[in-house]
Write a structure and sequence with these properties.
heterodimer; A: mainly alpha; MetI-like fold; 11 helices; 0% strand; B: alpha/beta; six-stranded mixed sheet; four-stranded antiparallel sheet; 25% strand
Chain lengths: 296, 263
């Protein structure tokens, strides 16, 4: 009997048509959901831009907050956010990546590593307001760092460390053992192996985790309110011990006022926040792309 | 880690065994993969270890440069001596052992870096004193890869063919100027032409290096090696000059295996 490519019986043919139909319906459904999300985002963006764009000018970036909408600006908030995010990066990247390296490369399979592992996974799910309380107790009061940039940065670093650690561990784990063995067999120490081969090969993945973490930190409001950054700040912070405010806080502040103009100012501040966020991400993607090219 | 380096200068010429194994057993989590194996590796010769899959030949090979150190539940008993010195002695640094005993793996595993950096990395981290550029050229020539790559040393090693990658891995190991080169089924991922290439290379290297090769290919073992060890189920069944082991084995099981009746 020769094999036939057309279904012989009507029943078989009917069955085949149903299978194809199911596949098409599922593909359509996935497409629809994807577009729904995108459309929602576009509506949101359009609303923000139509509200805020007319307030957005150089004076808006150069002025301090004010009771009068036409004089109000985001200078202190923007400076605070840039300060905050730089400090968070300086604190969280080395600590996060070092932790990931320790757990994956040096920690072995002991009980201690298992406990750390479980704790980190749990910490990733803790609400941000709880981190705010920890920051308030530990840094603001405990270490007496007051309501300073460094308190905010330490609190935010705690918040995003799990994200960076988990992503870095994933990235380190994707480096094949054959590379480690090659380096060890060439008389490299374990540290030389990690530094010269494992880290460069996992760099793109680590960078992705760092971007995710920093993006979250830049938009978080609750922990900052908790540690007392919700104040009127009419100066640009000059050092990590200065008190500060940040963009999400300024937005929160303006949105909670009754006047329509302040709502529009909030929209303008959101645009600025988005620009900061997007330019940070594009820079990271650019670096990652270059690194990936070099590795190939 | 402070270490007492293995002293190559103490070598006496009448000692013609560079590696000695005495009652070596290896267990993974209590299961013995290698049982009580003893034989010696002659200097400037090729010794091959053959046997069916899972007979413990790769495990044994990886003991010779302490690559099993990273397998957490592996335990090694017995004595392995390099130039008369116990490589598992407390005062011996494993990094130093691997400096003298290099290794080429089953699957080519070049670093995702340039051809030049692949060869230069080992000597660089081990503080090689001479000119790295000359060393890279010399090593690539020894591995008979130089002519194929000399115009693209800064290209990625991942762009080479499988056979070229394996020869790069050999060049990389040679750049460490080791005394012994361990090869773990170095041709199993390669086509016949690349395999012939690497076998020719082994002949050339014999005058300067001692080679221990694990292979499941008996033709290869009989073609290239001076001595052959036949292992089965973790036991050493027979060790002899290759010519004798493949033509007049003294053990019935060796004869069954080399004549292709099983395995």
């Amino acid at each position: 009997m020769t094999a036939s490519l057309t279904r012989s019986t009507a029943k078989q043919a009917h069955h085949m048509r149903r299978r194809h139909a199911k596949a098409r319906v599922f593909a359509k459904f996935c497409g629809l959901v994807t577009w729904l999300g995108t459309a929602l985002l576009l509506v949101l963006l359009w609303q923000i831009f139509s509200d805020g764009l007319r307030w957005l000018d150089i004076d808006f970036l150069r002025s301090f907050p004010s009771r009068f909408p036409e004089r109000a600006g985001i200078l202190s908030a923007l400076a605070g956010t840039l300060w905050l995010i730089s400090l968070v990066a300086i604190i969280s990247i080395p600590v996060g990546v070092a932790t990931a390296i320790y757990i994956e490369e040096f920690g072995g399979k002991g009980k201690l590593v298992k406990i750390i592992d479980i704790n980190i996974s749990n910490l990733a799910g803790v609400p941000s307001i709880v981190y705010g309380i920890i920051g308030l107790t530990l840094f603001v009061r405990g270490l007496q760092l007051e309501r300073s940039l460094i308190s905010g940065a330490l609190t935010m670093s705690l918040l995003i460390l799990p994200v960076i650690i988990i992503a870095s561990r994933e990235a380190i784990r994707t480096v094949p053992d054959s590379i480690r063995h090659a380096a060890i067999a060439l008389g490299g120490t374990q540290w030389q192996t990690v530094w010269s081969h494992v880290l460069p090969a996992s760099f793109p993945g680590i960078l992705t985790g760092v971007i995710l973490g920093l993006s979250r930190a830049i938009g978080e409001t609750a922990p900052l309110i908790m540690i007392g950054a919700l104040t009127y700040v009419a100066f640009v912070p000059e050092g990590p011990m200065d008190s500060f405010t940040a963009l999400p806080i300024q937005i929160f502040n303006w949105v909670s006022r009754p006047q329509e103009e302040f709502h529009e100012l909030a929209a303008a501040a959101i645009i600025v926040l988005l620009v900061v966020l997007l330019s940070m991400n594009s820079l990271a993607i650019f670096i990652r792309h270059k690194m990936e090219k070099k590795l190939q | 880690m402070s270490s007492q380096s293995i002293n190559v200068e103490t070598v006496t010429t009448e000692l013609d065994n560079i590696l000695e194994m005495e009652n070596v057993s290896v267990a993974y989590a209590g299961n013995y993969a290698v049982k009580n194996v003893s034989f010696n590796v002659a200097r400037n010769a090729i010794t091959s270890i053959i046997g069916p899959s899972g007979c413990g030949k790769s495990t044994l090979l990886r003991c010779l440069n302490r690559m099993n150190d990273f397998i957490l539940d592996a335990s090694i008993e017995g004595n392995i001596r390099f130039e008369g010195q116990d490589i598992y002695a407390r005062e011996v640094d494993a990094v130093e052992v691997r400096h003298h005993i290099g290794m080429v793996f089953q699957k080519p595993n070049p670093f995702p870096k340039s051809i030049f950096k692949n060869v230069a990395w080992g000597p660089t981290v081990n503080r090689y004193q001479g000119s790295i550029t000359e060393l890279v050229e010399r090593s690539l020539k020894q591995a008979s890869l130089w002519d194929e790559v000399k115009d693209r040393l800064n290209d990625s090693a991942l762009g080479l063919s499988g056979g070229q990658q394996q020869r790069l891995c050999i060049a990389r190991a040679l750049a460490m100027e080791p005394n012994v080169l361990l090869m773990d089924e170095p041709c199993s991922a390669l086509d016949p032409i690349s395999t012939a290439h690497i076998e020719d290379l082994m002949f050339d290297l014999k005058s300067r290096y001692t080679i221990v090769i694990v292979t499941h290919n008996m033709q290869q073992a009989s073609r290239v090696s001076d001595y052959t060890a036949f292992m089965e189920m973790g036991n050493l069944i027979e060790f002899d000059e290759s010519e004798r082991l493949f033509t007049r084995p003294s053990n019935q099981r060796t004869e069954d295996y080399v004549s292709g009746r099983f395995g």
